[in-house]
User: Fold these one by one.
Assistant:
Number 1:
Amino acid sequence: MKQKSIFFDPYLLRFSTFFIVMILMTNFVLGQQKVITGAVTDDQGQALVGANIKVKGTPNGAVTDEAGKYSVTASKNATLVFSFSGFAPQTVQINNQSVIDITLVREINNLQEVIVTGYRSQTRGSVLGSVTSVKGSAVVDVPVDNISNALSGRLSGVTITQGSGAPGMQSDIRIRASGTYNNTDPLYVIDGIVSDKFAFDGLTADQIEDITVLKDGASAAIYGSRAANGVLLVTTKRGKEGAPAISYTGIYGVQTPTQVPKTLSAFEQASAINLQLNYINADSNDARYYTQDELDYFKTHSWNWVDEMWQNPQSTQHSLDVSGGNSKVRYFLGGSYNYSIGSFNNLDYSKYTLRGNVDVSVTRDLKVSLDFNTDTRHTDEPSWQIGNQRQEDLYKALLVRTKMVPPYVNGDPVGNWVEWHPGVVVTPSLAGYEKRNQKELNATVAINYTVPFVKGLSVRTSLNKYDRDIFIKQLNMPYNMVLFNTTGQHSHIVGDSAVGLRPRAADDFLRSEDDKVNRYQFNVQVNYKRNFGKHGIDALLVYEQAEEDVTSFYGRKDDLISSAIDQYISAQTPKDVGGDEDQSARLSYVGLASYNYAHKYLLDASFRYDASLIFPPGHRWGFFPSASAGWVVSDEPFFKNVHFINDLKLRASVGLVGNDAVPQWQYLQLYNIVNTGAVFNSPTVGIEPGVLPNPNITWEKALSYNTGFDTRFWDNRLNFKLDLFYRRTYDILGSSQQSYPGTFGATFGSTNYQKIDAKGFEVELGYTGNGDKEFNYHVSANFGFATTKIIQVDEAENLPSYWSAIGRPVGLQSNGTSINKNGLYSSDMLLGYVAVGVIRTQAELDALPAGYTILGVKPQLGMLNYKDIRGPNSNKPDGKITADDREFLGKYSIPPMNYGLTLNFSWRSFGLGVLVQGVAGAKSMLGTVGRDIQARAEESSMEYWADSWSPENPNGKYPGYRVSSYRTRYDPSTFFLVDNSFVRLKNVNFSYALPQAITSRAGLKAVRVFFNGTNLFMIYSANKLYDPEQVLINSYPTMKNYSFGLNISL
Amino acid sequence: MAGCTKVLDKKPLSQVSEKDVWNNLDLANAYMNRIYARNLPGWSTEYADYSDESDGGGSYMYGQLTSNSVNYWPYDDIREINDLIVNIDGGTIDTTNKRILKGQAFFFRGWVYFQMVIRYGGVPLVLHPQTANEDLFVKRNTTSECMRQIVADLDSAANDLPSFGPTSGSNDGHVHKGTALAVKGRVLLYYASPQFDPNQTHTERWQAAYDANKEAKDYLESKGFGLYSDYSKLWFDEMNKEDIFVRRYQYTPNNSESWNNWAASTRPLDFSQGATGGNRPVLEIVNAYPMKDGKNINDPSSAYIYDPSYYWKNRDPRFQQTIVYNSAEWGIGNNGPQPGRIQWTYVGGEQNSPTITGFYMKKAVDTTQSAIEAYNSSTDWVELRFAEVLLNLAEAANESGKTDEAYPLLTDIRARAGIDQGSDGLYGLMPGMTKDQMREAIRLERQIELAFEGKRYWDLRRWRLFETKLNGTRRHGLTITLKISTDEWKSLKNSMSSEELESYLDQHYTDVFNDKVKVVDTQFDINWKPEYYFFAIPSSQLQLNSNLEQTMGWDGGTFDPLK
């Protein structure tokens, strides 16, 4: 429609006439003309509307219509150049063809692409900071419950770890190296509204236009107070002018574990128990020994509880949206439904979303818009008291469950040796359930007014209202397991006649909890953007105000008349009612000015002035400035002769950002009311002091420097991007507990004390193949290196330097803080002993110095011996292994290196995308489950313990020392160190777009089918024991995901 | 700009301000409730392991402790207590209640310091809530300075606390004047003991211990405290006249301080939940019980003949009320009581972690509890009962030269236990004992009367007896095996009711079972090191404060705990 109106424009008409004359002249010169038609689609088969087709060497050209079709007249030997913003241009020789369909490949770092940065949009060419982005369309094929799970490996400098495979569990997102001991979550901003992870995970990929990550300080500084960990900006799709476009996507996916660590079989488990009894010289009549008849039985009877309870998780997803509009009104309406079942029974998750926005151009200068979206998430889980909401614990328990006890006999859950039964726990009718309903309601009204009298001036004001409601209902029921007779000489074998019941008599109750979040954000923004000749100015000022209320309320009633009536009316004893309430507010002023001269010299400066309620009135306001500069060297006259470089931009920035992610009110002496008072005639409520007040508490700050360049070579086919960064985080809020003797006795809150430096670089390299009309490809690689160094930290006065964290990277030692919480792959601190090997022979034992002890114990055969490095008062070996002999056993526990390789191919209507990804350079300590060898009927141990030292197996790899209790736990040492470097095939995406000839007959614009596979194949892993992307050996396994989908547009 | 800052006017909604706590009696009492919860002693099976009561206790018993093994540094509790003592006077609570609150705080400060001093010897005395600006790098006070302060705090407590009788109704688990006096008696008894005075040169300490325990006994009796009539019901008839210092329990799901799992770990794991097994009596404690007439099992003068095969017969009644042996009746069950149930401990008689020693312990294990109730047990812990006051007084009297005064104290306890009075009315005690003989008698009486109440370990330390009595020895148990085939045994068992079976085995036990003594310390001899009487300050604390000296006997230790 738009194009038609252009033809009626008299001015254009004159031009057209001129062009027609030109074309006729060209025809005369080049000879025979013909009409070429075809369609332009993207690499996913979507029609590209408005793509440009130029006849090389002539002013001739065409633009694709709403169906992506074009028609152009050219000489039969001419060359056509296809281009579209955001895609790599493509050149095709006509060679006498009359139909040329073309697929354009998405291009990374397209300079004209418009991306959203803080409070404004910019073309990528004018961005001066370190910014990376991903289109929503790039991740639509991945069926995930939460959008964060789909982003893994797609954003350079962004690390994403999946918490657990339970449906609905979201990933942790971290940008660059963690520079603080506090929260390392980035700030989430959705359509300009400061939001949170929960809301972010409520989105679905097909509703997202793009996601931009602001990595450097200068880019993030405009979000000031909470931007120290970077900012994730999300822009959702909006309606565009045009006929209604409808799009449907349906996906089905199934998951299987990449690797489940093996544990001892029943026979090996029984043998390990006997080995332990032998080791401690237990009486040969001891009832704990497994007798020969029992050992023989377990050789052929072993029960794997994980296999018994496991089901492969599956998910389906449907989404439908429609958008369109005209010059007055534009709209986008979409909805989606997602349903997943988890790895065990009664782990279900469903999500519904509805999203719509309308933009109304009231007058030429006034635009009003309304955004409205809501989502509902529903989770079914077992009523599981231990480790609520983290079903990972269920898996962990199953993994080391005894192999010597069958889960069921004659269909009854076995209670012998078993205190609780995982199979019953996941059966709602037997053990109860927990249901979680989460709702979000989010609405934004915005008014844009272009001030008519002042060119370039506009005002925008918006009000956003956000409500969240999380309602949990839990039914907990006692249940019975069945005790069976036992056979075997020492009664170690479960028989098949029931002899009694073993109750798991947990409390019988109903409990509900309602958590609500209410907030609003009000913005007024003034923009001024204008060019004066070669001078370009873009400036803005913002006032932002937000308040938030958080309330929580819960109640519990016990003793149900019948669990069949799972309603409060049937519970008899009111037990517990509680709740709390909290309020917070933010107030901010933001300013930004950007200047460019001929788009060649670029300057940006911004500030944010922010108030945080976390701090006392005198320390509440923080000022966060930033400045950046860029120079497009390739536009300089002296560069005109450098032909192989298309463009080169140098840029540098500096910015200050803050962090206030610590608990509120720490500047006041407050007392907490707790329900753990002593019992007198009845239980009481208690009061205890809160943290020691810190009247000077203020912002944690991070000063970041970023510099780099963007360049493109060889007809824009090769692009290269380099970013170097250095960040000093100071006034880090942390406990100063270690700076005071233990006799002080106070619980410390946060003090602005610590300093951490982070530095690193990121490289991106991309190449777009000079393809033809059938075959195209794009290859890109990224590599990131980031390290941290602790400059100042809370440490004990007398801490020896070899245990000091100062000068070392973050994450090596826990130091009483929660640094490992977000530290990727870091399961335990890397402080431990240097193992020198298992003491295998009497001769080795005799060679040890007199009085030698290993952690207090006289050395014995089968023990793991360590290096004697020092004593308590000297740096010389002291003839015994004590805690003083511990060292830092690795350089990094958080991988300093991450890398990725993306390959995109398209051939005719087929598309193939491959993502290879990995990390390197860090080690981690096996967790306690890996370092424990158990000697009891209730639990098994990791399989490798089968090869441990014993008099009969003197060359066993693992130590054979056994303490007299049921569990021998080895201390952290180099013996249990694992390297977590890996390279894996992270994602494969294969798609096929049906030929237009077929789809158009069915009245459809495009139909595409696709297959997506995640974590299909490990190319290299240094860790042979478990998947290196897991935190611990017994963490919920990393999953392979296979999915199939269908995408229809009309 | 200022006009908009109103949105920033917010107040904490879920916490209480400091001032309110000291101005409001209910809040101050709640503060005290938490001090109780954090500082009251409670159930623990741990100490039985570090003694000749149970098996286990490896690193303590085999000399494997390191300087970081014992980490008890509750200065956060001390700070909370000091906060109240210093700040309560500035508030507006009435004087009577201020005094009661302070009395309780003094009591717990004395109690917590006492707990530190018996582990480490002298520790830094911090008696006010320190501010960050003062010199915090404190030194260890001498042991005698600490003891003086503990006694002073307990004196202040006795002075400020109200008087309760056992049945007043207000004695609901709060400490009272009698508690302070009885604890003071215990403190001074410890201070006089060989742990703090190895050469026994400070006779005045025994006199002080005597005076304190005498005062405690007289005072408590005047208020109606005394020995409760039934030893077996001591733990189930809660808040009886014997209970002086008690931690109460009443299971409430949201209050982790409201229950204990002692019963769960003490019961056989076949009848238990959430526990790993403790309190497994070794043969040494089993054999320590006298015969029914109070004479030692090897004493030929006993009216009863001790038969090692039928060792449970004709013993001190407290034996049956404490020790569970193979074929003993014990009415516990998974779903509640099973009256008449018999406990088997023979090889193959149990499935889930069978007892290593061949015995179980039944004191304070409530048979009415199901397995889960045993895990969430509401049975009160009695830290100090009247019988201990009598024993403390008897010991102090004997050591301070008043041996005769000890007799009636011991016979009262033996009489209550149900030991035959004997023609001399001495309940089996030897007449005319010397000080040394009486010391042994008192020590045996403590071992039996207070068995598995967490006292034996501390007594062995206090008497410095680990080395002389236990070092170089191993603890023992019984391996019990069936003499007849499993099938024969099954048909025998099924042919009789449990009463019939019990009386059958009382005559024919040796036809069915073979008891063999076994060693339970299978790897090592007991090897208590002399430095264990005062433990090392953990290096984590030394690292925080270079002014802290390490205890002598440990790496680089210079602090003399005997000063």
Number 2:
Amino acid sequence: MIRDAWRKVRGRGMLEETGGMRPENLVWVFGTARTGSSWLSAIMGEVGGYSRWHEPLVGHLFGNLYYERAGHRSEDAHFILGARYRELWLGTIRRFVLDSAAARFPGIAAKGRGYLIIKEPQGSMGAPLLMEALPESRMILLVRDPRDVVASNLDAHKGGTWTADLMRKGGKEKPPSLAESRPDAFVKGQARRYVRDVGNAKKAYDAHGGFKVLVRYEDLRADTLQTMKRIYSELEMPVEGADLARSVEKHSWEKIPSEQKGEGKFHRKAKPGGWREDLTARQAEIVEGVAGSLLRELYPVRSTA
Amino acid sequence: MPVFRNPTVSGVARKVRAFFGLEAGVTRGALPEPTSADGHSAGVVAPENMIWIFGTGRTGSTWLAAMMEEPEGHDVWFEPRVGTIFDPQRFQRHGGKHFILASQYKDVWLRSIRNFILDGANARFPELAGGYLAVKEPGGSVGAGLIMEALPESRMVLLIRDPRDVVASWLDATRKGGWQTRRRGEGGLRAESLADTKPNAFVRRHADAYLKHVGSARRAYEAHEGRKVVVRYEDLRTDTLGTMKRMYGELDVPIEEARLAEAVEKHSWENIPEEEKGQGMFYRKATPEAWREDLTRRQVKTVERITAPLLEEFYPKRPTEKQG
């Protein structure tokens, strides 16, 4: 009888914990910054029945403590994210996400259908925790050649670029960046960040038992529509072909006004292999040294090795 | 499902009681909402019986917590570090509505933080029904504001110590052979410290950390409307029993004086074996104002400049010092 009652209680709790949001309707986009996640999520969010949650950073919230600040305490029973209580706190993270999603997207939660695309490249550090907490969710691992990612960041963090504008909008002046004073050190730091983010996102991808797809930015650039169709197909999500084609067209590189593109802009080059022009030989070597393992795994043919 | 795969007997009983409507839940303040309807966080640890200790490391929080753990029906949650997760300064740049902690959805995520903490407390302290749980959380003080907002019924101790002594203590702990360096070495972490290579930079960094942690805790203390008390390490050292009695009095926590006296005696400095005390040890000097011997003049000035607002508030200069 107790077992039966327990099942009922647990079942009731499950319905209420989600605030109506179904975890299987969440589509996580992990990777790292400057991999085209804004572009991909804009295309997906444009299609009927899909909405976009733009960088909640919930993965960073929990991942930072778990993997960086206090990783050494995982066996400590007092530690809030300790191994002994893993199921408990994963359940809490689950409710945290679902409650927040339901509050922001009540339309999807109320209808119980539709999909929420969660663009979370900068929270990718916590991807393994999020996907373990939400095993029914769908996942996109979006990757890009680390040398291009680092080159893009190197450009973005120089003085007077779009990142400075962004900070100014928030009422702050961008402090001097290593990108200008010590570019090689900046490159090394960014390569490490790539390994942290994409490395953890890849771990989450490998472990995830639900619907998932690995997407390379380079493939998206080469044939956007076909790559998008593959994404929907592998994630088993419905999409109207004409809707998708319209959205792809609307968000194409060619549709972005020329004055919004170029060096120092958010939309810079969109050119796979552009790192050959942007990085010095030494900088390319630094990235290959730090991110070599992921580079070989994700780009076996294009590796310089 | 990740949740409740291995429920405890008491946990199952709580759920079953909740299911049959036998448990009314816990009375709480206006904010936030009590718990999820399955009674998940309406457990044995009542939020009003949680006593949060905020401040920063090396302020005597381990000592204070050890004394608070002694009385019957009292326990200590030793550095959960939950405050580190909810550090608002970490996300200063991300104030948009999409951010998980966006102000527009504060009621939602405050409830989540509340459940996150209470779930963790209930799972770890299932035997504490009706008792008090001190949460030693100096390292999570950056999140004190959100924690106290999520748990407005909880009680709070703001534990402070002269920042010059705090920095001097860290400097000693992190030098070659210091207890912190040894611990880092055992954990495979970098053993070399700025304390040895660039002591002045180390002092600056730890003074910044003091300002950040104690500053956050101070703001949380100011905003908290529940029971609260400021405890100075120096007062604890001068009159431990008297200060402990004052602390429990202001927190309105009943405590048997004889048991408290026993706890104070048991954990007194004098009862720590000599071989466990001294330079490089966790128990070092316990001497207020030892910074006069430990820091250089330049280091003292650095700490005083950085932590000036807190130093002036809690450790105002005596007239003779002002003249000097």
Number 3:
Amino acid sequence: MRRTLFESLTRRPLTEAPPSVDDAALAELAARVDRAARRRLGRSLAIREVDAGSCNGCELEIHALNNAFYDLERFGLRFVASPRHADVLLVTGPVTRNMREALERTYRATPDPKWVVAVGRCAFDGGLFAGSYGVVGGVGAVVPVDLHIAGCPPTPTQLLQGLRALLEPGSVPSAPPRAVSRGGS
Amino acid sequence: MAALLDIIQGERIGDHRPWPRFAVTPDVWRNVAGELAAGRATLLGLWGDAAAVPTVHMAIIANGTADIAVVSLGCPAATFPSVGALHPPAIRFERAIASLYGFEPAGAPDTRPWLDLGFWQLRHPLGARMPAPAAQPRYAFLPVEGDSLHQIPVGPVHAGIIEPGHFRFTAGGETVVRLEQRLGYVHKGIESLMAGATIERAAQLAARTSGDSTVAYGIAFAHAVEAAANIEAPPRARYLRALMAELERLANHFGDIGAICNDASFSLMHAHCGILRELVLRAADGCFGHRLMMDRVVPGGVACDLRPDGAALVGDVLLQIRQRFPRLVELYDNTASLQDRTAATGIVGAALAAQFGAPGYVGRASGRNFDARKTPGYAPYDQLDFAIPVLDGGDVNARVWLRIREVEQSLALIEQLMERLPPGPIATAIGTGGGEGLGFAEGFRGDVLAWVRLEGARIVRCHLRDPSWFQWPLLEAAIEGNIVADFPLCNKSFNCSYSGHDL
């Protein structure tokens, strides 16, 4: 263990101020998220993730935001264990009938002011699962949605871009709060 | 097969491939259940079918062979002899059949609903639908008796970024006396959406049954459709599928190894394993244009070829893993405080693993030598050289080591796949025939079963069975006698799918 830890001290961190794909764009993105988060929230935005029926694909990519490449916490954005500590609910999935009540109760347990970010294709309108007896529809059918991040599942970079949109007024098509972005699939 | 066939006396159904399906009498059905109970065969799946005559199907494999069969029992009176009465692994399947179809397992030991949590506004969504009663009885958790016991209800919304489900712990002090799961929260009605869907749409649904196993589901579903349509995917497609499957296995095993250590508060491993996982996902994205490789496997072949720089990307990620991973294994092995948490925690006994036909690392860490890539086996694995690691510790530690050994096998497999990748087309047309097909694929979690009935280009009926069906009940057994604080560790070492189970 000692060797691994010492190496970590001498090696350059993996964290990408900028990850590989589109280096300049991501560095810019990271800087903007950082600035916006500080201005709007004094560097503290607590996110509670709620899987309301997802296939787990979105969760995997949300998880990836915590890895060394994306390192979400450097922007002051962090995941919390309780809705009572949260500013943002990050909701995935078509909302199943079996999860509707749990989502509503989680929403009510989150103190104001709060934002709801719907993540993934299914969270927009139920996606592939729309119309099933087991599915209510998109997240907006159950709780008011401020922002939709598209993708099946959205990549960590798309998730970061989405959170920037939440933090920067004017970067969402119609001004928040309580506006649903017109994200397609 | 002789022994199994002797038991299964019935009319062989014509169009079922590649293994036979038999229409049997209730007596034969009971005998087959007896074979399962006696440990001479293992249950692979049990599902309902609202065909012209209501039917229940049971897929089994004769132990120690690759002989697989489906037995089908028509139940015009919507009742069938309970398999669960003789063989506990069938209980949850029968509860699900009763909830989804309204077929009653006669003599079943547990008649409480499963998956139906009382929110659907209708009953028996896959059978004769009827409106749900206005007032539903409260769900009765199993009774627990004893002095000074307390209950801890957890979920459906959990503390981490994970799927929803309800766990009801009964504890005496810190020790778990009983865990009872209640699942179904992410039930999306996938099988109902499958009925009547085009093959293309059905494949997309299969790919979103459990997002972490999207490739495995894609392959199992493709195997079933190809069997039903009596076609074969071309060799290059089989190799590319296997490449995707092994990348998926690597990514998930890295994620799991890190997450298990993280639940023992050893975040260093989590951070380093997270890096390896990310490297694999980026390589997958570079090779196939999607980090999770969703919708890349399609019935008939694969949707896209390896991108021109794919071979270099794969070579690079293998090199990185070979450089970094052994050090992490050493770190795991040499950290006593971590081993203190994982060793002897959450033990699954070999007998229980065998009885439940425990898929994947849960079974193989408890001495069960089964891997769908070998048994029944499918291309291209029959042409590749690899071993199936099996351990017998049955604890969290064994499930970590099993994953470590499987990572090593997957690396060797990927090298072979890249060396031998054949040229040629990547898909075969499906045609317009019909029939029934059964298919398997070994996902990172274990074997996925897919069964389809096909008419032309449409799915009449599709059943998907996640490996978690046989793993969730074992988690209840594994945690018994452990402390509550070790539950996250046990749970992560199983990493069962909620969405794949709930369908």
Number 4:
Amino acid sequence: MSTKVQHLKVLVRKIQSLPTLPKVVEKLMLMVESPDVSPKDVGKLISSDQVLGARVLRLVNSSFYGFPGRISSISHSIILLGFNVIKGVVLSASVFDLMERSMVGLWEHSLGAAIVSGTISRTLGLSEPEEISTAALLHDIGKVLVRVSLTSDYDKIIDQVNAKQISFREAELEILEVDHAEIGQWLSREWNLPEKLSIPIAGHHEPDTAVKFKDRVAVVHISDAIVRACGIGNGGDPWVGQISKKAWDTIGMDKVDLPKLMKKIIEDLEEVEMFQQVPAG
Amino acid sequence: MQKVPIEVVKPGMVLAKTVTSDAGMVLCGEGTELTDSIIERLKQKNVSHLTLKGHPVDLGDSKSTEQKVNELKERFSRVQSDPLMQNILEAIESSIIALDTERKDESSEGGHQ
């Protein structure tokens, strides 16, 4: 564990420049910490960046938040979804904007995981499905950092995946000695994300080690595998990883009608395609 | 549900998704049966794609069911021996087959739901 921490420290030094987030996002992160901030103020701030505002509106209107096509203003979305969700949505809208076209597959993978998480959470009647979907949307944020800030390592990782036919995470552990989940956890701290989001990001590959929010971690872990299973997006390698049986049973997946759930998920995932085309207006 | 370019949309097809402008304004609601004038109006608003109910248009770009199932099995190649993963694979396989069969039926009936 201590060597892991050391490696992370070395990496962090290597990273130096965090991907620069738009000024608006920085302001927002500070703003939502304040106890007396109003949805109206936050809405105004986000809308002041037109492109970001439009992206946020598209995301909050996706089916995984349960109000498809019905949220017309950002302040309205905050009232419906809460600050945690909006914070996560704004972050993902701006972070994924940093990615180059070659990472569109990861964006689709992330959107897909958010959709699957929403469907699973609602099927199982878990509380705060919107926050679980938001955690899923951000679960691979560490990979974005590797891509953007550790470019040569990223290329080596991809080479390893192809040469040795191993998973992206196995290649990360070989080359960086830490994985994107851990990098994501560190990023979450840098960006002051609430634990409800940062713990699933940190634990999505090892759900059994989570000490808190086990349900949320389990849903994100399972959704990551299922979105890969359905062939949506690109998580860095083409394979479905092993799902923890413990995580599966923890949230009661062993009791659901699996064929019925999978059919619903495959239909819901068609929404991912929708995001490839920016609507005109 | 099928997403298609607006050029191939015909009157009588039904929207599966609300069409909104970039600013979030609703242009046309989910469940609307499209008419020539609605399609024309959406084109004027520069809408490029619509999501329709069912699978009313054959774009000629879809994979065969067999090909989809083969690719699915390929993705599971590293977790083949695990009973839980095998259950998931079978559930997805049966869903793919069921959805493709439904869609074939729909398009042979010549249109939308």
